Amino acid sequence: MTDTTGTLSVVPDPVSAGVRETEPGSGTHVALGMVASTNAEARRLAGSVTVPTWVTAVEQTAGRGRLGRHWHSPAGNFHATLILPAVGGPESAVLRSFTAALAVREALSDLVGCGDRFKLKWPNDVMADGRKIAGILLETVETTLLVGIGVNLVAAPELHRGLASEAHGTTDRRAGRDHGDGMVPAGMAVAVSGMKRQCPQPVHLRAISGRTVSSSRFLAILASAFEVWENRLVTVGFRKVREEWLRHATGLGGVVTARMGACTITGVFETVDACGAIVLHSRDGRQVIAAADIHFPQVG
Fold first, then answer.
1. At what angle do helices 96-112 and 238-247 cross, to 10 degrees?
2. Closest CA to 98 of 129, 120, 83, 127
3. Within 10 A of 41 (CB to CB), how many other CB atoms are there?
4. Which of the residue ranges 74-88, 127-141, 190-204, 217-231 has the most confident prediction, judged by mean pLDDT?
5. Helix (H, G, I), strand (E, B) or coil at 172
6. Is 279 exposed, middle or buried (0-12, 13-18, 19+ CB in 10 A)?
7. How does pLDDT run across 34-66, given as a tens digit for each residue?
8. Which residues pair with 135 in a beta bridge?
9. Structural domains of the chain, with CATH
10. What number of other Cβ atoms are within 10 A of residue 5's Cβ?
11. pTM value?
């Protein structure tokens, strides 16, 4: 990578900080050491950023998923937030959970060489052999979108007694709503519905491939893949992104349960619509659900 220190004001960090050019593309890379969270650092930088900018950290001490839940963030795993200026309104922003998931899946597939092992779980998780390996968290700062991405490269959290937790569980989507903290919940990392169900342990890349991949290597592949999918979304629209996402969707064609407060809908996962909402076919007919806790009885 070519040093471009001074291109962007870097948030001071107690361990290390630097600004580099990502490979390929014209975006900027802010490389940090130990931080509370990359999303928090990205929020501080958002007002001064005019080009896509990756913020990465060696380790997060307060990594978080949706609603402030803890996110397992040890050194060696991939912790990053992509700052995307001027992406438009919430309807446009939420679609980046799909482009980000596709880019992460593509990067993992390139590294392992067996793309069939990696599936996408609505709306923002990446699964490996039916076990969670990555999650995405979207937030907004005015018109700037922050795409937080966490990938288990060398370690995965242990889930005691196999209960659902922040590291692996049901997903919650609140499309197009603002919870007052800038959250775009369609791209949250993982939300736990409170169902104490058995679930597979999360997994990491080294365990399934025998390869140790550095965060910098993963970023180079991911940045390239995301650039391709972002350009496709901007130039062609969501249709092609949606089609590719559905090709790799886990649970498609199977029975899922959507929980919306006291309301529960169970049906066959038919598709994702043009807005990114999940579509179920229940006994009462076609259900288009933009906000729900989604439970897949079988993930894989």
1. 50
2. 120
3. 24
4. 217-231
5. strand
6. middle
7. 998 999 999 999 999 999 999 999 998 865 544
8. 150
9. 17-250 (3.30.930.10)
10. 10
11. 0.80
